[in-house]
Amino acid sequence: MASDNEPRRAAAVCRNCGTAHAVRVGPDGEIRPIGTGHGTECTCGDGDLRAISDDAAVLEDVNASDL
Length: 67
Prior knowledge:
Largest sheet: 4 strands, antiparallel
Number of helices: 1
Strand order of the largest sheet: 3-2-1-4
Number of domains: 1
Low-confidence stretches: none
Oligomer: single chain
Number of strands: 4
Distance between the termini: 38 Å
Shape: globular
Strand content: 25-35%
């Protein structure tokens, strides 16, 4: 089990483009996408990522007209 001082893995959604990313969340709350090469930003260039904690959070982002 990771200590509180180590980054944890999570999923996050970009508030700008809606893309989901695998991320690391640091002990200070900084969200960094894994493997994109864009630092703390989404591949769209926006840095507004929201970590998701459960399936309900993902479903809230889905627009019914997109289904």
